[in-house]
Design brief:
743 residues; alpha/beta; eight-stranded mixed sheet; 27 helices; 22 strands
Length: 743
Amino acid sequence: MSAPKDSDSRKLLRRLQAVMAEAAAGQERLDRIVTLVASSMATEVCSIYLHRDDQTLELCATRGLNPDAVHVTRMRVGEGLVGSVARRRAPINTADAPSTKGFRYMPETGEEVYSSFLGVPLQRLGERLGVLVVQSKDAREFSDDEVYALEVVAMVLAEMTELGAFTGEGEALKPRHRQQVLFRGVTGQEGATEGVVHLHDPRVVISNPVSDDPEGEKVRLNEAVDKLRLSVDRMLTQASGDREQEEVIEAFRMFAYSRSWLRRMEEDINAGLTAEAAVEKEQTVARARMARADPYLRDRLADLDDLSNRLLRMLTGQGRDRGTLPDNAVLVARNIGPGELLEYGRTLRGVVLEDGSVGSHAAVVARAWAIPLVIQARGIVTEALSGDRILVDGDQGVVHLRPDDMVRSAFGEKLAMAERAQQRYASIRDTDCVTEDGHRIELMMNAGLMADLPSLPTSGAQGVGLFRTELQFLTRNKVPKRGELATLYSGVMDAAGDKPVVFRTLDIGSDKVLPYMKATEEPNPALGWRAIRVGLDKKGVMRMQLQALLRAANGRPLRVMFPFVAQMEEFLEARAHLLNEVHREKSLGHALPESLSVGSMLETPSMAFAPRKFFEEADFISIGGNDLKQFFFAADRENERVRRRYDTLNVSYLSLLDKIVSRCAETKTPVSFCGEDAGRPVEALCFAAMGLRCLSMRPASIGPVKNMLLKADLGEVRRVIETAREAGDQTVRPAVMDYLRAR
């Protein structure tokens, strides 16, 4: 597509910029713009439609249509030709609008006399802002040059819309990034907090998209592209020898050296844009294509999007320094790895991710830090600005951006109630967890970082029921050394003092992929090559970790647990490896653990029916509730559409737990429940009533759970559960809740 005459387009953009610079109100400025564009395009009509909300467009200014229709005519995204432009994020150009598929007649506008229609999206980096339309009575299709010119105008208007150029009355004319916005996501970690946004990857702001010096701007662009290409070449050199990584960077490099990409940006500059505005225009087009592309093409376009971000930062100098972290920072990001998140430290109040999953590395770290996490908050990265006020409700998976006083007041009451509850829990921290009918329940905490261990005395936990060892592998660029791991594990034991720590061996695979291990394509990773299956196949890594654990114990008691055991032979083989390492350490003259307990996680329904020998050979069993529940109900816990359909207090699931507890009782094998559900007071109460006497959870949950159990009569709760089961109820939750309310 050829560009319009650069002198004509630059004249139009300069006149547009002059209108933008005038001290006019938003509506007056809009009216001048549509008049200017209509005149420059030689059309009778120019109209601007802006989004009132995600799904509604409003006519906000027009030259040529009935002026009484302004702020009256509205349509849904996808409705009529204007709505179709917004939905498709692509131009519609027709010589006969009334006969074009999707046309909808709006009688109040008086547009029936206009035959030709050209509409282009007002959009910026994937965010739909509105639609710019020109119409004429003559039945003609607009030329490629005219379409291109209107797209350039739309790009400049979109940039100015972002900067609040059209501020006025009504939802559609509120300043961008100043409106209150509600995001509904998915709970990654419970809790609530109030703070200010700190963007992990700050957006580039282009304050002046128009230039009168195309030659100078093209020089700037080409110099930046040369630097970009050199940086990609360096990446390729550094990846030398890693064939898979080389293939990825080669695809990346192909885009960086694309002549058509550079040519399109130079054409945008000829039309009157600055170098950075030209980059962003092409990036916006790429993101629009991403929204409607197939998954393979979407991945390729994501490479182009990443290159554009790098190029924008080179041109503007923005985004290189993330600045000082505010005291009440809530991190907002598209996604983030565990290493990057750990670099921010525990001072974060909360985390909100546009992507992410409940089992992601970021979720593991957020749970370890006991800070609220909301994932899959679609659109928040585009909408939020650093410094914006933000409320994060991790309990409901809801985020309030730039909330009004009424929302802040209500949220403040919720935070105050939570603070009062924490004070109440602190008062029972050192109280033994003994129920009213005399049953002692051990409450343990889950951990995965050295930074978690200070929570041990303050939480009231009696030990660490699960120490996740994979985080030390996930946050590095290469396999950690045995000595490094031994020092870390020894530090964990030192911090725990005389309280027990159960170390779970490396649990990788599924959603936890090591950055230095070749990813394995699997149709269903959660049921694939992961955890103990990886360990038994890669015995060198398993042996190294077991040696590190034995040396860390250095004469102290050691408790080791193997994850994701699906059949007895896997546990017996893994335990044999551990015992072999014990013999090896002894032959080397190293100190052995004072005692060694070897346990298994029970995370697959198959192990509830394992041979009796499994329960006899295991020194302890830990029910891994998160995986056991998803496999029992065949409901992926990463899939929000199905995971909430199945209740933990479902009669069939409780019957499975009952069977596991009974089998452990037969062989006198200690059994505990470890997982998110253990930290929910009602669920914890029911688990205890089913005979589980040890529960392991995040530190922040210990207070609420203990508060519930201290006032409980487990015999009464068990009778309530049995009555509901006998009555044929699908879940015992209603019966238990009625019982608790009655008490």
